[in-house]
Design goal:
Number of strands: 11
Strand content: 5-15%
Shape: elongated
Low-confidence stretches: 1-6
Number of helices: 27
Mean pLDDT: 86
Number of domains: 3
Length: 610
């Protein structure tokens, strides 16, 4: 604003001056009191001629309001000029409108700020932008929008300035909405749908025929899928083996995660960027499969068995003293994130298992940190692996345990499992393998079944008479029949080709209704219920209270020994009830996130893909 009463006049017939310029004008007059100075100011403003009646009335109204405000503020300042100026400096910077007679001036007419060009707007706001910080301007704009009732606009402004990339995403979403929401799926979105729905190429082509503009062609999905793979030169395939180098596999996993976590990674500080770590679980497992009519390179090779190793990323963390979780696998037991390292057409043996363990451990030992670039910012991500996707066979092979009835953690044999007073020293290295939940649930189920078969004779491995054998067989048939008739389950029956019907789903159904299971098997209800609680606890994926778990497991073990002292616990029961607290204590992550179910599901995929 101008500092004198001349002000700035526009085509609207009004001259704008500041209240400070009017105050300076009246104070410079050598008059006796404040009232006379106000009179002088009034005479000065009304000296103009040719004012219309409406302009004159407006000027009288404005001056009356100004006079009243000046008098009140002058009295509050105790009629002292220094105090008045100090207390009212913001008010004095306000404006006062003086009507003027409009004259045709030469040149281009002035435009309001909203009508000005972008260049003029930059020129008019140059002083404000050079003095005031960006954050202050943004906050002021938010407040003004909210005050004017534009709450949505205020929230949008706040949101798009909260992250370096949020504005880009808003713009992309807005551009998409202008073209229509259902314009077209991106190849990556179509690939996600393709995998989630477990579609075949033929099924996808049928769906695409309904709207070819919305669904991209299958070749684009293939290209998107290739972006999720490590470089082809890092993969080796023969007639009996397929393997991928672990370093490129980790690199592509980390880079794909970083694209998803771009906003999160840009918010962490420099110190945290140097401590990024991807925690993964890995393991190996063998399974049987149907043979195909195909010729292999070597006559001794066979495709009747498959042995594979894989890993699953579980959590991305940063920090040293106080670790921060940046990402956590939402489905750690699903094959969705399961990355195959190698699979071979070989039968699972102790030597093959140890060979695979050494192969993967050597690959892990040679890993280097993965470098990720996001908007010019560098991030280094290290990897840490824990071997928990294993079953009892792999654990025995890895620890050199030759007998399946011996505990690989403490070395006890089955006949010593019921002696709870015998506290032997455990191998801490053997506790890192975890619980193998899927197999543990099945083994719990089978141990109760086999215990119930022996209830009539109450003999474990002692020599049985023909009558006792018949009683045991009749009990088994009775239990199988009742489960079939009352629950629809096929229990302990052989399946075609390999295995039996005692799988994960059957065991889950068994523990869902402990009362019915107790009634059919004749095993104590409280024991079955306690085993159910323990299985649900260790597979929950949450942190477990060690003290409470240890007490509950110990009480359950004592109950088992008290009820069935003639039948020793199985190795899995012994491991979970006796060594469970040590396994949970030494686990890198919540024990429920370290199950082997992802690897077992991957076995099914291998058989299906063939």
């Amino acid at each position: 604003m101008d500092s004198n009463t001349s002000g700035s006049a526009g085509t609207s017939g009004v001259r704008i001056v500041t209240r400070k310029s009017l105050f300076d004008k009246m104070k410079n007059e050598n008059l006796r009191n404040f009232e006379e100075k106000l009179g002088f100011l009034r005479d000065h403003l009304f000296t103009q001629d040719d004012l219309s009646e409406s302009q004159l009335n407006k000027l009288k109204h404005n001056f009356a309001h100004l006079k009243s405000e000046l008098k009140q503020r002058w009295i509050k300042a105790h009629k002292k000029e220094e105090v008045f100026l100090k207390n009212n400096h913001l008010w004095l910077e306000g404006t006062f409108e003086i009507p003027v007679t409009t004259t045709n001036r030469q040149g281009r007419p002035r435009k309001s700020f909203g009508e000005s060009s972008e260049r003029s707007k930059r020129r008019k706001t140059e002083d404000i932008r050079s003095i005031v910080e960006d954050g202050v301007l943004i906050h002021a704009a938010q407040v003004e929008l909210r005050k004017s009732g534009k709450r949505d606009a205020s929230r949008v402004l706040q949101d798009i300035t909260s992250s370096p990339t949020r504005a880009t995403k808003y713009k992309k979403a807005f551009d998409t909405s202008k073209c229509g929401v259902s314009s077209r799926l991106t190849p990556m979105e179509a690939l996600k749908m393709f995998i989630d729905a477990d579609l075949t190429r033929g099924q996808y082509e049928i769906i695409r025929k309904t709207n070819k503009k919305f669904f991209p062609c299958y070749s684009l999905i293939q290209e998107a899928k290739k972006k999720c793979y490590p470089p082809p030169e890092t993969t080796t395939v023969t007639s009996t083996c397929a393997e991928t180098q672990l370093q490129p596999l980790i690199d592509i996993t980390v880079k794909r995660l970083s694209e998803f976590l771009e906003e999160v990674l840009l918010r962490i500080n420099k110190q945290e960027r140097n401590t990024l770590k991807l925690l993964c679980k890995w393991g190996c497992d063998g399974s049987q499969q149907a043979q195909y009519k195909q010729k292999l390179d070597d006559e001794i090779d066979s495709d009747a068995n498959i042995f594979q190793s894989c890993f699953v990323p579980v959590r991305l963390i940063c920090g040293t003293d106080k670790q921060k979780v940046l990402w956590e696998n939402p489905t750690p037991s699903s094959a969705r994130f399961c990355r195959p390292i190698r699979f071979r057409f070989v039968k699972e043996t102790t030597d093959i298992t140890n060979e695979e363990i050494n192969y993967v451990k050597n690959s892990i030992g040679n890993l280097v940190a993965t470098e990720v670039d996001i908007d010019g910012e560098k991030f280094l991500v290290n990897s840490q692996f824990v071997m928990t996707m294993v079953d009892g066979k792999v654990c025995n092979a890895a620890t050199g345990t030759t007998s399946t009835s011996r505990c690989y953690i403490c070395g006890k044999v089955s006949k010593e499992f019921n002696n709870l007073q015998d506290k032997r020293r455990i191998s801490k290295d053997a506790t890192v393998f975890g619980f193998s939940f899927l197999h543990a649930r099945i083994r719990f189920f089978e141990s109760i079944l086999h215990l119930s078969y022996k209830l009539p004779a109450k003999k474990y491995r002692q020599r049985k008479s023909a009558e006792e054998k018949e009683m045991e067989l009749n009990k088994k048939v009775e239990i199988q029949t009742r489960f079939r008739n009352e629950t629809g389950l096929l229990v302990d029956m052989p399946k075609a080709n390999f295995g039996n019907t005692n799988d994960g789903n059957t065991s889950r159904r068994f523990f869902e209704d402990p009362k019915l299971s107790s009634d059919i098997t004749g095993i104590d209800y409280e024991l079955i219920y306690r085993l159910k609680v323990i299985l649900e606890t260790i597979s929950s994926g949450y942190d477990i209270n060690l003290e409470k778990y240890e007490k509950y497991a110990e009480e359950t073990a004592c109950l088992y020994v008290q009820l069935y002292p003639w039948h020793p616990m199985t190795p899995t029961l012994h491991k979970v009830l006796v060594h469970g607290s040590d396994i949970i204590k030494n686990a890198l992550l919540p024990i429920g996130q370290l199950s082997e179910e992802a690897a077992e599901a991957r076995n099914k995929h291998f058989r299906s893909y063939r």
